[in-house]
Design goal:
This protein is α/β, with parallel strands linked by helices and 251 residues long. The chain has helices at 2-24, 52-62, 73-79, 82-91, 105-117, 131-144, 163-177, 189-199, 217-220, 231-234, 239-249; strands at 27-30, 33-37, 43-46, 68-72, 94-101, 122-126, 147-151, 181-183, 204-208, 226-229.
Length: 251
């Protein structure tokens, strides 16, 4: 009995913490569901730079325009997972970790656990590995009160070789599993539109491929909730101006 009461109060604390967290981070919640994930200017910075100093310099220049950044293997391998909390503490960003988790369920759990413990607000996993592997990521996200993004189809040309053939089924799997957040390509709007139709208007889609990969930001936002942009901002002579111009082009 005491164990059951103890478990119930633990679950309650987790639910309260999760609700508070997303409210504090401008994520609106109703009936315990994330309705709209608010991302400033619908723009996520892909921070694929190779050092902490470069990361801080870029973040400092764009901090008035962007509140959500994506950290992937380049920066995490160069600087360690500590970089997540360093940037969150200094700039108050929300951080999506793009670790494209794609292993067996047991290993996926460990990868997600460590990433959330390091401060990530969300993690991206691959869908082609199947529902058991994705469920492990979803369970760990729930345990930490954090979010999971399911990658359906990638944005690069090579995605047409294997991934595109299964992207619709991956998206359908996500819907069946109750996943609300997806990654889908800005480089192929016909594909993005199909994925939007599958996941529905309530789902939250973020799209990489704008700028250097050829995608158009404004057109992408007709289907997507936010765009992910890296090199067009952090490789620009003036990242802040690049950021401002990009935001203007989205109007
Ligand atoms: O950067 C685009 C960013 O999005 C990089 O961090 C890529 O690794 C990432 N990305 C894709 N396509 C995908 C998945 C993946 P830039 O580009 O399909 O603007 O410099 O091209 C992702 O976001 O999950």
């Amino acid at each position: 009995m005491i164990t059951i009461l103890y478990s119930l109060s633990y679950i309650n604390i987790l639910v309260i913490l999760k609700t508070k967290f997303w409210q504090n981070n401008n994520f609106n919640q109703r009936n315990n569901k994330v309705d709209t994930m608010k991302i400033k200017n619908n723009l996520i910075l892909a921070l694929d730079v190779m050092s902490e100093s470069e990361a801080i310099e870029i973040c400092d220049s764009i901090k008035d325009h962007i509140d959500t950044i994506k950290i992937g293997y380049p920066l995490a391998l160069a600087e360690g997972l500590e970089i997540i909390n360093k940037l969150k503490d200094q700039f108050g960003f929300k951080v999506i970790c793009d670790f494209k988790v794609a292993d067996i369920d047991a290993t996926n759990s460990k990868i997600c656990d460590e990433t959330f413990k390091a401060g990530a607000d969300a993690i991206i996993c691959h869908g082609f590995v199947g529902s058991d592997s994705v469920q492990a990521c979803l369970d760990m996200a729930d345990k930490h009160g954090k979010e999971l993004f399911l990658l359906t189809e990638m944005s690069h040309p090579g995605a047409k070789m294997f991934l595109q053939k299964n992207a619709e089924e991956i998206a359908e799997m996500g819907v069946e599993m109750g996943i609300r957040n997806y990654v889908a390509p800005a480089t192929r709007l016909d594909r993005l539109s199909i994925i939007r139709d599958i996941v529905g208007d309530d789902a939250f889609i973020i799209s990489p491929g704008v700028g250097k990969q050829g995608g158009d930001g404004k057109k992408t936002l007709e289907y997507s909730n936010a765009i992910i942009v890296g090199r067009s901002i952090y490789e620009a002579d003036n990242p802040e101006t690049a950021c401002e111009n990009l935001i203007k082009s989205l109007e």
